[in-house]
């Protein structure tokens, strides 16, 4: 079996996965090209009395860490933020790029993510490698987890279309795989939950934390995590076991993975101006930020409860969450009006995780 090789970018030193047989690779972050020397061309080194450097066995998202100096200090924060409006198409959405900007602001100003460690993919980017095509989204997901070490905090935020397609290997309880829709999905296809799980969940070593925030239709189990938190309208919850009957492990390699999704697998999410009263946002993204701004971010359960309450009240014309209670973050970012209507939201945010025993009551942190 082929074992992926990691090489450091010649410019920014980000670890990169080298495709089989490749002699060079371009970094998705800084775009520098790193050329790989042919090991057959390296002359043999004379024996030396100097002891060889230690082999660094730091955890890697792939099988073994590359040789070289020790990794950067643990505790790094990295994020990939994707917002797709599908502009000028029949699939156009109004609030997704707003969602991406809000999430970037939240991570930088509230959770102290370095600006240089956030990879934004939207149609507004001028860099062709940051347009949210299928290829660029795949590369961004690999970049997110490459070189991660215990103590690191990773975030994936996606706002755009989600869908489903028939599952044929029997590992989905409802018979459907959940998917994300890149900008070019009509020609290049969608990104299936199995691929997302393989790319960013299963490689994570112990001590690494990944939060996914997926504001899309049919997104309840789009990371294919083993457990889903099912809540009723009274706030009572149980954990559903979504492990495949085949016995294939869809969890991480010891890392902690928790996902907030915009709705259940059979539901659709919505753009709306009913929440902000200013412009269009994804309902899930707005309610997540609002929960943190209002002090409801103590635990994962309190965030989920706050999000569900806000959406239900708007859906029943309760008016909660808009007008004079627009959150600080959103009011600073979202200006101007929107023609999209509000009200009638029919979605239930979901919480999925690699493990169940304490996630709901566990303190939330990024």
Automatic annotation (TrEMBL):
In residue numbers, the region (Disordered) covers: 41-76
Q: Cross-referenced Gene3D superfamilies, in alphabetical order?
A: 3.40.50.12660
List, alphabetically, the InterPro entries matched: Metacaspase, Pept_C14_caspase, Znf_LSD1
A Gene Ontology molecular function term of the record: cysteine-type endopeptidase activity
Q: Which GO terms describe its cellular component?
A: cytoplasm
- What superkingdom heads the lineage? Eukaryota
Q: Which residues form the Zinc finger LSD1-type domain?
A: 9-33
Which residues are in the Peptidase C14 caspase domain?
Answer: 76-350
Q: Where is the composition biased (Pro residues)?
A: 41-56
Q: Which family does it belong to?
A: Belongs to the peptidase C14B family.
Enumerate the PANTHER family for this protein: METACASPASE-1, METACASPASE-4
Instruction: Please report the name of this protein according to its UniProt entry.
Output: Metacaspase-1
């Amino acid at each position: 079996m082929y074992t992926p090789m990691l090489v450091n970018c010649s410019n920014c030193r980000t670890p990169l996965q080298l495709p089989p047989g490749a002699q060079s690779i371009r970094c998705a972050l800084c775009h520098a090209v790193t050329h790989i020397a042919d090991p057959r061309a390296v002359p043999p080194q004379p024996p030396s009395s100097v002891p060889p450097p230690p082999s660094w066995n730091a955890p890697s998202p792939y099988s073994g860490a590359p040789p070289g100096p020790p990794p950067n200090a643990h505790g790094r924060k990295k994020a990939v933020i994707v917002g797709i409006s599908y502009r000028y198409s029949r699939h156009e959405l109004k609030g997704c790029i707003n969602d991406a900007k809000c999430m970037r602001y939240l991570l930088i100003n509230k959770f102290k993510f370095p600006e240089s460690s956030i990879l934004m993919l939207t149609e507004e980017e001028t860099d062709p490698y940051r347009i949210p095509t299928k290829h660029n989204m795949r590369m961004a997901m690999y970049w997110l987890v490459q070189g991660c070490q215990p103590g690191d905090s990773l975030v994936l935020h996606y706002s755009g279309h989600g869908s489903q397609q028939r599952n044929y290997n029997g590992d989905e309880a409802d018979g459907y795989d959940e998917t994300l829709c890149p900008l070019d999905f009509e020609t290049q296809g969608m990104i299936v939950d199995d691929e997302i799980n393989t790319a960013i969940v299963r490689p994570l070593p112990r001590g690494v934390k990944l939060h996914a925030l997926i504001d899309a239709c049919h997104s309840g189990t789009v990371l294919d995590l083993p457990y889903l938190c099912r809540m009723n309208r009274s706030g009572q919850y149980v954990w559903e076991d979504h492990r495949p009957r085949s016995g294939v492990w869809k969890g991480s390699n010891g890392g902690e993975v928790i996902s907030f999704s915009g709705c259940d697998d059979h539901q659709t999410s919505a753009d709306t101006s009913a929440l902000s009263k200013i412009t269009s946002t994804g309902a899930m993204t707005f309610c997540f930020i609002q929960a943190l701004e209002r002090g409801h971010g103590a635990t994962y359960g309190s965030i989920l409860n706050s999000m569900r309450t806000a959406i239900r009240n708007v859906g029943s014309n309760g008016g909660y969450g808009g007008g004079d209670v627009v959150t600080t973050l959103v009011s600073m970012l979202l200006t101007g009006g929107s023609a999209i209507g509000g009200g009638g939201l029919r979605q239930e945010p979901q919480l999925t995780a690699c493990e169940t025993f304490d996630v709901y009551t566990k303190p939330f942190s990024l």
